[in-house]
């Protein structure tokens, strides 16, 4: 891998401490960073290099999956420098440029620069503009930009943001992180597809009855009301993570593919999502908000009583939806998606329900077999389970479900951010969100955003610690299905 400079905006922020430094450190230990690299942390406060290094050391001690001690961590930290920067101040970018150049010369490394914007999205445009205007991105090497969701608040703001960024970086240089795409089981979907002819053959509307994608959480709004009460689950989870999982699970890859091929398959899916009008939202989407209830054995308050939430907020903490993909592969297969906070469990999973088995009625057996299910658990377990039916001779020939299960032991596996930062440093965009996907996702979901805002559809409640509002279950019952 080519030597580079990692320029981190928001270096004193929470994401940097919890995710970015531990990711870089673990990549360093695994020899997945270039032999020579330099890191510039940027933030508003003035901080001396040694104090900055000490704070990185502290975050590693707290959040790294590997111990951070001894000479290893010291040699890692020697790459770190800090510069104070006001994002609107041209002079600060000039100072940064000369500091980066001096360091590149000291190390004898090329002008490859990775800009990571770990800051609030309202600063993305300004920072990109200044990087461009002040020549930070005009070195002889490559330049890349990593940003994190949210990419806009709706279709219009997403487009405006894209326009701003496009003035400074090309699409190939922009790496949009959706951390779900860094999860090992989501990355595994690509491999499951192309390396198993058995599954490939079944991956169509001919054999699949429905697909269910769940991302349930135990946590509530926590300390994030200022953000979340303006955002809701529909923007926080559904428009990005959930639709990305949908694309990953439905694209057909006949073989190992290039990032461009993956992006093009994903675009086909999101382009083919059946549009809904604002008036149709109510029949396809359920929105919910939690009321007081339990988190395990601990009583917890309802959303409206959470600190920082408007007492009359109609914000959604739960969304379930039925989606159709109008392609020859997926015509007539409903995709059910649900995600909510303060449910009864932390569980992210995909369940593929295969079409109804033949009704079995023999002398020995009057019972009905259950449908075959393929369950892919993403979090907190990582496993794949195929449920088949078999005759149990010991029980008078009764037909029983049997589970074929594979559970990964991923305690030592890299975290999402390690995978993603490593890919971005290598210039591999396979597991990043392309602008087309982002724009088309916003476009598809825009009528729902409007229906929510205008209160055109009911706001269902569910008690904290339960399995979501009843309406989310009715959505499947209408089609003769249930959530697995
Ligand atoms: C984030 C959302 O993107 O994903 C959070 O902003 C949510 O609200 C989190 O809790 C869930 O991520 P994970 O990896 O714990 O499933």
TrEMBL record:
Catalytic activity: D-glucose 6-phosphate + NADP(+) = 6-phospho-D-glucono-1,5-lactone + NADPH + H(+)
Name this polypeptide is given: Glucose-6-phosphate 1-dehydrogenase
Domain of life: Bacteria
Family under the similarity heading: Belongs to the glucose-6-phosphate dehydrogenase family.
Residue stretches making up the Glucose-6-phosphate dehydrogenase NAD-binding domain: 7-188
Residues that hold NADP(+) according to the record: 10-17, 44, 149
Domain Glucose-6-phosphate dehydrogenase C-terminal, residue spans: 192-484
Active site positions: 241
Keyword Disulfide bond: no
Binding site for substrate: 179, 183, 217, 236, 341, 346
Role: Catalyzes the oxidation of glucose 6-phosphate to 6-phosphogluconolactone.
Signal sequence annotation: none
A Pfam family per the record: G6PD_C
Keyword set, alphabetical order: Carbohydrate metabolism, Glucose metabolism, NADP, Oxidoreductase
EC number(s) reported in the record: 1.1.1.49
GO molecular function: glucose-6-phosphate dehydrogenase activity
Pathway the protein takes part in: Carbohydrate degradation; pentose phosphate pathway; D-ribulose 5-phosphate from D-glucose 6-phosphate (oxidative stage): step 1/3
Gene that encodes the chain: zwf
SUPFAM superfamilies recorded: Glyceraldehyde-3-phosphate dehydrogenase-like, C-terminal domain (SSF55347), NAD(P)-binding Rossmann-fold domains (SSF51735)
Coiled coil stretches, renumbered: none
Top-level enzyme category: oxidoreductase
